[in-house]
Design a protein that fits this description.
The complex is a heterodimer of chains A (347) and B (79). By secondary structure, chain A is an alpha/beta fold. Chain A has two domains: 206 residues, HUPs (Rossmann fold, 3-Layer(aba) Sandwich), CATH 3.40.50.620; 103 residues, no CATH class. Chain A contains twelve helices and eleven strands. Chain B is of the alpha+beta class. Chain B has one domain: 2-Layer Sandwich (Translation Initiation Factor IF3). Chain B is built from two helices and four strands; from the N terminus they run E-H-E-H-E-E. Chain B has a four-stranded mixed beta sheet with strand order 1-2-4-3, covered by helices on one side. In chain B, strand 1, helix 1 and strand 2 form a beta-alpha-beta unit. In chain B, helix 1 packs parallel to helix 2. The radius of gyration of chain B is 11 Å and the shape is globular. Classes of the chains: A alpha/beta (347), B alpha+beta (79).
Chain lengths: 347, 79
């Protein structure tokens, strides 16, 4: 007889690793699925910033899959996910994180996937009370119902605290071998990881989504407010992860690299945005996002850029302004630190 | 480094190069050689990991410092 098959939502964290292993141990064939939303903390910023270059650059979802010895299907949901971020039915968490809608969406996608691929049920690493919104006990049935997964959604780490699901009732898995974890403590998970011999897993408490980050959420809200519409493209949300964001006027914003890695990254966007670079002194690359600048605004943008260059104390700094068609040289006196208004700084 | 199919994943960051490779390999016949060029240093770890867990041998890796070139052969499985 063919073994039953389950797909595990693999975030790259400890909980999904343990949940999948618990089910594998019961002879179930498990494969992983990981959704790429564009807001994932994984990879991007580590790859961009020079100061992070010495970190181990691994994708934790892939690492988890390899520890488990399972296939991992990585699915790009950037476009479909916009509606979750822009119009969350259940609202946002502390920042612009639509955690409950996100979970419903991802489990719903997994439900479609198991139907298309002949799998029997879905596993998640959810634990009752682990997170303030999406993992409250009263939301567990909401996720199962609204995703369409219903009783094909099994949470092995807290199953004993919930009503038996189809895999348990049908005897595909033994409920007694599942767990009854609850609350914010990580100790049970860490003990189980030790029991399974898992070490070097991703740090348990770390958020994996930029939308839970207050600074990032302020930048996204600023983007929506100043465009007059709640929408975004992948490039928009990538650029919010990089550089200092300074908005001297509602009509334009400066994205100023903080170090060489960011300068290299922003250079890739010079065909899309006007830019300013320093000539007479080492300094950052600045992208200008928004409406075309008049001469006074351009002079201010250059003076701000010069402020973050090695020439910040010089009488004059030479910069190069590139409007994407031609370049011109501009000389300015750098702005003093106190001239950069706090209300210009986004995030 | 002869390939049947080429993928340009320059300027994309993890996991997008892996997604591009995965989606391409899915459409190929077993034995097809796919070359992918990436600029994300993370791909030096991620692409071989994905290939190992998916059963597709990595035939060659060229680390050119600013670009990384991988030659992957589709395995017998469906990818």
């Amino acid at each position: 007889m063919q073994p039953r098959k389950a797909v595990a939502l693999i975030s790259g964290g400890l909980d999904s690793l343990l949940a999948a292993r618990l089910i594998q141990q019961q002879g179930i064939h498990v494969e992983g699925i990981n959704y790429y939303t564009g807001f994932c903390v994984e990879g991007h910023t580590h790859a961009i910033r020079n100061r992070d270059r010495r970190r181990v650059k691994r994708n934790n979802a892939l690492w988890v899959a390899e520890q488990l010895g399972i296939k991992l299907h990585i699915v790009d949901i950037v476009d479909e996910y916009k509606d979750v971020v822009i119009n969350p039915r259940h609202g946002y968490g502390a920042n612009l994180n639509p955690c409950l809608d996100c979970k419903i969406f991802m489990v719903g996608k997994a439900r479609q996937w198991i139907d298309e691929n002949g799998f029997d049920f879905i596993i998640t690493g959810e634990v009752i009370g682990q997170r303030p919104k999406s993992q409250r006990k009263r939301f567990m049935p909401v996720i199962a119902d609204e995703s369409g997964a219903e009783d094909r959604l099994l949470r092995p780490l807290c199953a004993k605290n919930l009503a038996p699901t189809l895999p348990e009732r049908a005897g595909w898995v033994d409920r007694e071998l599942l767990k009854d974890f609850s609350g914010r403590s990580r100790k049970p998970q860490m003990a189980l990881a030790e029991e399974f011999g898992f070490r070097d897993y991703a740090q348990p408490a770390g958020g994996c989504c930029f939308l839970t980050n207050q600074t990032y959420s302020v930048k996204l809200k600023d983007l929506w407010d100043n465009r007059g519409r709640r929408d975004y493209e992948l490039d928009d949300i990538m650029l919010l992860k990089v550089g200092r964001h300074i908005r001297p006027s509602r009509s334009y914003k400066l994205i100023i690299a903080r170090e060489e890695g960011e300068t290299n990254f922003l250079s890739g966007y010079r065909h899309m945005f006007p830019s300013i670079s320093t000539v007479s002194h080492p300094g950052p690359l600045t992208l200008i996002e928004g409406e075309p600048l008049d001469e006074k605004q351009l002079e201010l943008a250059c003076a701000i850029t010069a402020r973050f260059s090695k020439g910040r104390d010089a009488e004059s700094v030479e910069l190069c302004y590139n409007d994407r068609q031609r370049e011109r040289s501009i000389h300015v006196k750098p702005l003093a630190a106190e001239q950069i208004r706090q209300d210009w700084i986004v995030g | 480094m002869n390939a049947d199919v080429d993928i340009d994943a320059r300027r994309l960051f993890c996991p997008l190069p892996v997604i591009k490779l995965q989606n391409c390999i899915r459409k190929q016949a077993p034995g097809t050689r796919v070359r992918i060029v990436s600029t994300d240093p993370g791909s030096l770890n991620d692409i071989p990991t994905w290939c190992r867990i998916s059963g597709h041998p990595v035939l060659q890796i060229d680390d050119l410092e600013t670009e990384f070139v991988f030659l992957v052969q589709k395995g017998e499985d469906d990818g």
